[in-house]
Design brief:
4 copies of one chain form a homotetramer.
Chain A: H1 2-19, H2 39-58, H3 67-72, H4 97-117, H5 121-153, E1 178-181, E2 184-188, E3 204-208, E4 211-214, H6 220-228, H7 240-248, E5 257-260, E6 263-267, E7 272-274, H8 286-295, H9 303-310, E8 345-351, E9 377-380, E10 397-399, E11 408-409, E12 413-415
Parallel strand pairs in A: 8-11
Antiparallel strand pairs in A: 1-4, 2-3, 4-12, 5-6, 6-7, 8-9, 9-10
């Protein structure tokens, strides 16, 4: 088990660094908004996680690598100690990027030695924390991409993260296919014996009314109709807080859409190019997703409906080098549900709350998920920027309703007519 | 039916004005914070409601009483037209208080005439809007009290709204009695044929795990132990957003608690007096309620658990003139659930969302509830400031998690041990 | 001397109250912006001034009238003690207006008795503080008017302070007459033995280059040309901070100008009426005055130029009941300088600084002027809202460059061509 | 003349880059506060200045090097066109530092060729703009140092810009020596025929009362006495706006002073080390300088007093490699005025205003100085970070009264006793 884990640890660590290959040193250090973090910080923080929760506990003769790092790279773990203020992460031009890579090297080597030396009862416990560290680093891999995308979008020079072949493919012709489900008492949450986050537990029963989910994601073309129909000007379509937010932040289209004369362009990690009507709409907030659904005469699914609909569906990872880091048009048969994973996260109408009987881990790791269960919404699925092997049907992502810089899109639901 | 309605209309309108009897003219016009409104505005807005939704529709030859009022006293109904900005309601020294009372008089008389003249098919429809207007005004009656309380608390002179006999009574001796429930598939929401708000509908099924509710509310004494145990200094007890909010706003006790040397005092509508350990704790935010529950080793109930527990329990209104506008200590037997109504609203762990199949009314009245279903929590019960006859077991009140100026308290729940 | 003072004391106190005659009780208590104060507060604060600086010192057996008032109505005298926060003055619905008038009554009576009983050495010292209190109350009389004007302007109902006969008169025909002065070493500051504020002292020498002052104030008509010439859109005309301020606050005309279709209206204390092209422009900030001057190819005068030009000119008070509280068109001969007093305060290009050898009074009264000598500009003259007898040619008024709610206008200056 | 200019151009350009030698790539791009700019931006902006004001005008066949740079690196010249928003300069990770150096290379070469090719009447005009560009770049050299210092101070790792030998020397023993001046009508402003900024002109007469200036700067030791005497807690010592600012920003000592137990440390570009009582106090705002002067029973000099006192005094540049970038203790005889240049800028009590007859240049360069003449104070002298050859006795530096991140210190003045 540990050998397998060590191999996955190494692969994950390497993957983070490969994601940085296209970056200039300058790109690593800037924090483009308080919600985002510098890439350099992501690289150091994920390393700090292993040093703090694994090395400091199981490495014999452990000494802190750098006492300052314990504060600088602690994100939000109050039980571990003080944290450098989140909105000031962009002040840290030191340690330099090279020093951060050096820090990674050292932790990687010590982790490698540790994993070989674990014995007896500590194996199991350490393995579970290392597994959590791997999953944690995968989450930050997606954040690196979304944060770099946001940073680049602030620059009028429109830097390109990585050029990719566009490779337009035929898109799903049928706009209006719905997959029906019966409802009733269903089981929700993770019940297996692999890894899952604490917020996916415990598996429990939920009563569902009959419902239908659209077979694919909402497209740019469909969303553009909403824009053209004055969707951003009609308060009756919006939640009250959404309407206020949209006006204050002067939203008139999804983030990264650019109106240029008669044409709409889209800023991506690959380029700036004309909006593709067949691709899934992306970088919308919960407020926009909700308003669009209302305008469509439909609604967003609950997270339970989504999970029920995803039961048993294969997760086809599509995150791969060479491919565009951008959602693709649907090219599946309409008879089955498509685009659950690998395109955009899907906003659900479910506020992020604890499952009945939810328990956090003891100690600092108990701060991982539970304390964020307020004023956020659950997103399900996984996006084109989610690392391979990271998600599952019970996976619960969550963001505040105004967040737009993640790869977030829309799947519609509706009540089954009786 | 209409005769009965007319009588209730008159009673409700009179009651609003009786609530204002203790106020000086000066007290009517000031807006002490953006969340609160001047009393004068409450009086005018509830009147505007009847003018806009009833008179303008069913009164023959209707002409607006004052075109400016349509904007000034529109709270948030975008479908009706523009609104005077909420945070500037305190700028309106005109119409004067006397003019607002004049406005009420005129609308009351025209409403009275209208109710007598309704015929045929319009009776039913008009009656349902008038009923809504009455319920709406009752909601503002409670807000008048909470907003005046907040205003008076800002004044170092500590004005008294109304003096009342304290009348201390024996309190419940037993701190730790829990009422158990089985769970399973239960029915939630209003299923009767009386009045209810749209957000209480439709009645639908929910699956509940077995649970227990404490038989009474958390007391000041119990909450004071949390304060003394450094509850406001221990981040591990708090939601992340709660911790940030508590530090930014420098919370160290419930709103209206005043530390004076060794002693704790409490500002009320009646007076400033020593904190009574037996009375229910009041004026806490969701964040504080949640942190207190965690510290207690318990949790807050869901709104469904609360509704199930309240099933069939009598609503003993205790809002009455002469009595203190302040929650009272529990004096009931511990075998049954107590203090569901008439003391403090009870925070539930349920974010305010739509029930499955929820439908809003058409037109402006559709803006009444649905558009606020975001970043708020449901409160159940009713408080010492809730007008008689206003609530029921399916009633859903809601406020953002940081709100403290309402009469909000805590009832604990826990999972049934298996 | 004291008899005369007592008579002026009484007259000043009465005048303050006469200014309030048109107000409804509601109008007294609201604070429409942090820079403004409620009328009720002005009435109480000027009374507090006499209680604090006169009664508490010279009245035998003095006891505070209300200990809370010492904090509530202290504006900014740190040496006296704590102050109720300025932006929260609008929270104080108590003491009621009637109670504030009662407070005035009591202080007036005790002051009256005190003035009769002063003997020996204390007469002179007390008289000088009472004189300061009178001058201080006169300053607040003008503030009452400007603050009420601002408050009423926030109300869409456009309340009228007092109706007045418009009485249009023939205006000065000649736009471009300049009065020349030689410059050289001149004496500046108050050198007499009557009352003056500490900031007018000591009289001292200043070297001036030859200069010219326009014989009258800039008119609405002239300013409108600046507006039409895109004056608010051309950054090259503005100070950098002025440009930023104008954009942030979305200025496109003077405060209280209202564009209505093709026409410009003006909100005044009397009414809303068409802009009169001949009247002096009013309610402009220093930034606007400065930009207008640059656009005109002229400049603002220094305060020393203004004082030199005003030497020996009669002060014709025009503040009187029945007349409009609004600046009037120039109707004087162009050969002499006109409109120095009684229309609008005139922005000078002089930052508000201490004269060489400036000394503040000891104790709390030393806080009267000196500590505000930063980021403010001197205004000279006096306005249509300045109480009779209050100003003189050495009088220095001062406001921050962004202030617009005072009766502030523009007089142009230019260098004498050599 | 042009040959000399070309040589000075080259030297200045090289000097900017030499200042950057100690920086890591990461240090170039971060903007630590809105008032500061990234080093990379400084390097590009000074280059943009030459491209925009020289090359675009006199280079034959000029084409913009990069159209985006025209916006990105325009600081505040509205006449040139749009500007990238100042507070977002830290978003620009591209162009990379290497690209910015490439941009400098290209402009340097083209400037070099241009200077050789200028002929006839254009020589003089171009030379004067080039001279301005050199002076401009020197100003940014000082800003690079102050901005890097601020950036490094935000980092708990306390990066070192450059280590330097401390070399403590004997300090002036005499604390209280004053140099007297007669006053009278004096000439102020630049009257020579070398370079000066427009704000130093025209030379004109000013009347001064007799005054005295302290022979040296206020030391850390003296300032520490102010701190220990509760200087930051006594409102009577402060300007009103200074008091508010100091409380809001929680000032309790100069910027970069660090209290550690009983000891005071100081963060510098060289290191963090114990506060040296003999060194001039540095990094104080105008507000602190003014409060300190009041506490001392003295005052700040006017800029005219300073200029008069500096008349004919040699400017001993002390900015040199190897030496500390930090002010040094006074080691001069007390009979003469010392430390006018090379240690700290000296706050004067003079608001930054136009001299009588001030004229700005036509076109964009007219925006250089004049439009900032509001809410700023004049500083005189020059600091340890001012490039050699940059200042003169008529030089007017200016900053808002709350600025602390420049090398700003205090020289006291007082009225001559008569």
């Amino acid at each position: 088990m540990i050998a397998n884990l060590a191999e996955r640890f190494a692969r994950t660590r390497t993957f983070s660094e490969r994601l940085c290959a296209p970056l200039a040193t300058e790109d690593y250090v800037v924090q483009a908004m308080p919600d985002a973090s510098p890439t350099s910080w992501h690289l150091a923080h994920t390393t700090w996680f292993f040093e703090t929760f694994v090395l400091s506990r199981w490495e014999r003769g452990y000494r802190p690598i750098n006492a300052d790092y314990q504060v600088l790279f602690n994100s939000y773990y109050n039980s571990v100690g003080e944290q450098f203020p989140r909105p000031r992460r962009g002040m840290l031009t030191r340690p330099t990027v090279a020093e951060v890579f050096g820090y990674r090297r050292e932790v990687d080597e010590r982790m490698s030695r540790l994993m070989q030396s674990l014995v007896g009862g500590e194996v199991h416990e350490a393995a579970s924390v290392i597994e959590l560290g791997i999953q944690h680093e995968q989450q930050h891999q997606e954040l690196i991409l979304t944060d770099v995308k946001y940073l680049f979008s602030c620059n009028p020079l429109r830097p390109v993260y990585r050029e990719a072949k566009a490779g337009k493919q035929a898109a799903c012709a049928k706009p209006d296919a719905w997959i029906a489900h019966d409802g009733g008492v269903v089981e929700i949450g993770y019940g297996g014996d692999g890894f899952c986050f604490d917020n996916e537990r415990p598996r429990h029963r939920v009563y569902l009314e009959p419902f239908e989910l659209n077979h694919r994601l909402v497209t740019n073309g469909e969303y553009l109709n909403f824009v053209k129909d004055r969707g951003y000007r009609r308060p009756e379509l919006w939640l009250s807080l959404g309407w206020t937010t949209a006006r204050e932040q002067q939203w008139s289209a999804p983030l990264y859409w650019i109106e240029q004369g008669e044409q709409w362009l889209q800023f991506t990690l690959d380029d700036v190019r004309p909006l593709d009507a067949d691709e899934p709409v992306c970088h919308v907030s919960y407020f926009e997703a909700d308003a669009f659904a209302r305008w469509s005469g439909a609604r967003l699914p609950t997270e339970f409906e989504w999970e029920r609909a995803a039961e048993g569906v294969d997760i086809a990872d599509r995150f791969a080098e060479g491919e565009r880091l951008h959602p693709s048009a649907c090219r599946h048969d309409c008879a089955e549900i498509a685009q659950l994973y690998g395109e955009t996260w899907q906003w659900t109408s479910s506020p992020y709350t604890a499952y009945p009987g939810f328990e956090t881990a003891g100690g600092a790791l108990g701060e991982y998920n539970g304390k964020f269960m307020c004023n956020q919404y659950v997103l399900r699925g996984g996006s084109c920027a989610t690392p391979p092997g990271h998600v599952r049907e019970t996976y619960r992502n969550f963001f505040p309703p105004e967040a737009r810089w993640q790869f977030t899109g829309i799947r519609l639901a509706r009540d089954t007519k009786r």
